[in-house]
Amino acid sequence: MLLLVASMPYPFSLVYNFPSPKPFSGKILHNPYADRGGRWYKSNLQGHSASWGGVTDGRSSGSSYYDAYRDMGYDIVGLSNYQKISPPFPDDSLYIPVYEHGWNVWKRHHLCVGAKSVVWLDYPLFQSLHHKQFMIDRLKPTCEVLVINHPKFMWSFQPKDFAKLTGYDCIEVLNHYRRSFKHWDAALSTGHPAWIIGNDDTHDVSRRDETGRYWTMIHSNSPNTKQILNSLSNGNAYGVSGWDGVMDNGLKSVSVSGKTLTVECDSTANEILFIGQNGIQMRSYEATKKASFTFSDADTYIRPVIVSPKTRIYLNPIFRTNGALPVYRAEINWIASIGYWLIFICGYWLIIILVLKKVRSER
Fold first, then answer.
1. pLDDT per residue over 320-353, tens digit each?
2. Domain layout of the chain by residue ranges
3. How far is CA 280 from CA 87, 88, 131, 274, in A?
């Protein structure tokens, strides 16, 4: 009976034709950091407080959660309790409505940023690539920025999934449970402009090992949440790993001239790394605050990493285009979808017939 109940959401899905993987190409290098005005806003958009009567495992009150991040100098504090959009805190001028979607056993979760409503549909047991795509298509219209959360955690998503999945904005590469670089590079290596986001995903702000560990710096020309969300969805942000939310370095500029990418940070870094196709380190420079990389014909994207004594800064990729960002869309295969629905209809009818036969035989 429990399996029957758990199966009820599964008919509500579609079958897709996924686009073929294609690395970034073109003669123009897209730089998501081209806008140099404004300032950087320090954010954590993923974390939990005590909620749902203790059914979920948040251990802090909402106010202590908010205060902990404000004390560490965060500008944006998102409280992403499961299936619930929390109201703004009293002095929160940069409130962004968020929640974590997902009540399945394999932790296939999404972060809905700038959420307008809560979606309750989920697939509690297994999920094929088609179920994962359907959830993205269902969630994206209900929020401004859609993030695939901690894909390496319990291997909820496989790296190969990101060669196919479309329609999301960011991957939560940095999370205190897992770091998901293989998944990110799998998306980038197949031409999907997926942006990094870093969050603690803390469930207890008193624990130093899960609070102030991972965050996102978002660029904006003004303290306006609409503009901040626009920057996040267009890659004008970077992820940071550290301790206690302490920044010992920052990004000064990212510039592109012809085929040459130049990264400059605020102070001397231990290393500046340039990571390319399939996550391969292409070049590194030591003890410098400025470094450059010139694209060869074989280079499709480069994502720089700034290594300092207390932090690592992970920048979004600079990649090849023909002038516009590539847009991929998984197309619905209606014939296969109808066949999928018929399987469930026949299955449920068979169950009903068997139950009726059993009831009649017991009379």
1. 999 899 999 999 999 999 999 999 999 888 888 8
2. 2-332
3. 43, 42, 31, 9
Residue 79's φ and ψ, nearest 5 degrees, are -105, 105
Half-sphere exposure of 270 (CA within 13 A, CB side): 9
* Widest distance between CA atoms in the chain: 85
Tell me the sheet residues that pair with 269.
288
Residue 99: strand pairing partners: 112
pLDDT over 70 (residue 1): no
State both tokens at 353: 């017939």
Average pLDDT over residues 30-55: 92
What b/e readout covers 135-157, taking b as 16+ CB neighbours within 10 angstroms?
bbbbbbeebbbbbbbbbbbeebb
Is residue 201 exposed (0-12), middle (13-18) or buried (19+ Cβ within 10 Å)? buried
Tell whether the model's pLDDT for residue 272 goes beyond 70.
yes
State the CATH class of domain 2-332: alpha beta
pLDDT higher than 80, residue 359? no
Nearest to 235 by CA among 86, 54, 34: 34
Length in residues, the chain: 363
Strand 170-174 vs strand 260-275: parallel, antiparallel, or unpaired? unpaired
pLDDT score recorded for residue 54: 77
pLDDT at 13: 97
pLDDT of residue 231: 98
Q: CA–CA separation, 348 vs 231, rounded Å?
A: 47
With 0-12 CB in 10 A as exposed, 13-18 as middle and 19+ as buried, what is 92? middle
194: buried, middle or exposed (CB in 10 Å: 19+, 13-18, 0-12)?
buried
- Looking at residue 355, what is its pLDDT? 76
User: Is the predicted pLDDT of residue 14 greater than 70, yes or no?
Assistant: yes
Would you give the DSSP letter of residue 223?
Answer: S
